[in-house]
Amino acid sequence: MALFLLDHGAGNVQSLANSIRKLGYDFSWIYSPDDFHKASVLVFPGQGAFHTAIECLTERGLLEPLYNYIQSGKPYFGICIGMQILFASSAESPSTLGLGLIPCQMERFDDTTKPVPHMGWNTADPIDPDTLSISSSDHYYFVHSYRAKYDPEDNPEAAVWAHSTTQYGQEVFVSTVRKGNVFGAQFHPEKSGVAGLTVIDAWIKQSLAGHTPAEPSPRIPRPPKPQHSFTRRIIACMDVRANDEGDLIVTKGDQYDVREKSLTSVPLSNITAAVKTAGAVRNLGKPVALAARYFESGADELCLLNITSFRHSPLQDQPMLAVVRAAAERVFVPLTIGGGIKDTVDPDGTKRSAVEVAGAYFRVGADKVSIGSEAVYAVEKVREAGGRLDGSSAIETISKVYGSQAVVVSIDPKRVYVDPATYDGPYKDELVHGRPDGPENERGKAWWYQCTVSGGREARPVSAVQLAQGAQMLGAGEILLNSIDRDGTGLGFDRDLIGLVKRAVTIPVVASSGAGTKEHFVNVFIETGVEAALAAGIFHREEVGIQEVKLASRQAGINVR
């Protein structure tokens, strides 16, 4: 039997290909409508907007052949958008019709009590006895804003397709569907570590063996539980750049300075080694090897940030593409890539849009792209236009094609101190006041957080709150919140900054900068409610382990994978 993968042209399909190769299966690609006749087992992975998927399939002449393939009774596995197109439509683009096999419209999550997108690890509770190795004790990676409500009373025809359900906040939705030859997963098994690989393997084995699932069991209501099983994420970040010899390495700065310290700060006993390294880019390892180590250590997500090199390189000459491709072959959790995601120009003068650059990263295995300085300029432009969007920014163009969940905005703010007794400027509602029992150097002071660009070298007239809110308006799906003041200090996350931004937006926020102990993670989760926390140096130097952080979090009552 022939296993085929369908690439609709917009999304990360390489990660699934890597997963299937790791499991030891051979496969081919669907390139044209005629290829459907060769396929006896078909997987359609994908991410992105509902209308983009339907439009891409239609333009390539693949939509009708796909429908006919599914109707033929041959095994089909749709992942994320590959599952959503089985439904009648989506509120994301109501005028775009899906395949209509499942009589239900995808609706957006309610964001009044929780962040949207639903981004992170959650459980899936099987309904049918034939679980396809899905276990309610495992966690799977979800990243989506639209869901199919599980409602056996009001929509029994759709509920009969439900194979498992998941709860996010107080909403219970369909996380996998199965009926006859059709299987679909809202989560990404190819990004769900060992648990996800097990699901892929079980489905392929059953399909190649010609196994037909039993008729679905009767559907019963599943009211929401008091608490969902959604977890907080622990993210390992790698700042990648070329050293002075031109090799790509992982480095880490102290308040964004990645150079080794001068000899004046080095003890005499270490003077020989210091002579060789003084002023050099700090080298903490190779990016692919570190990424593999963090995956094996249980990191929930990895972030690769291209911090200074190649930012102005043309698309066809980005060494980071090779790094991402190699990392994706060894890592089966989400990868976020940052640096150089903007409009660029090839050596021959060919213009390349930000969405093309992002697409290149998605095709080699990235799941999300992080945008920094370009986001600041875009928000400034929107503010100058009185809040009007023109659709031209990298955030808008990428999220339109790939969905908001694919776009992260990285914010690099620093404190600006003002006189609390006299300040009456535009940021007075965002002022943070030093606590009487806080650090001595903060007592009696007040400050706001100003955004910067170019790696913190240039301050801009926009606050962290304004940037976060503007980024959400433009279509970003997540905020990566750094702190220049705390970067590399080990003093803990700036919880005042994080709480300020967390309260200002309804999309997920990742806390970054300053982690020095496992307790710092626990504190930021408890005090700010942030969805994820990120660290770099303490993980690279193995001062704190990822499992140490998770154990401390569990002991504090925080749900982690």
How would you sum up this structure in a few lines?
With 561 residues, the protein is an alpha/beta fold.
How does this model look, in words?
- The chain has 17 helices and 28 strands.
- It has 561 residues and is α/β, with parallel strands linked by helices.
- It has an eight-stranded mixed β-sheet. Strands 14-16-17-20-21-26-27-28 form an eight-stranded parallel beta barrel, surrounded by nine helices. Strands 22, 23, 24 and 25 form a four-stranded antiparallel β-sheet that branches.
- Strand 12 and strand 13 (182-185) form a beta hairpin.
- The longest helix has 16 residues, at 193-208.
- Mean pLDDT is 91; it is low at 268-278.
Strand order of the biggest β-sheet? 2-1-3-4-13-12-11-8
Fraction of residues in helices? 25-40%
Give the CA-based shape.
globular
The chain-level mean pLDDT equals: 91
Number of helices: 17
Based on CA atoms alone, the radius of gyration comes out at 24 Å
Q: Give the helix/strand class.
A: alpha/beta
Low-confidence stretches: 268-278
The rounded distance between the terminal residues' Cα atoms is 36 Å
Which terms summarize this structure?
561 residues; alpha/beta; eight-stranded mixed β-sheet; eight-stranded parallel β-barrel; globular
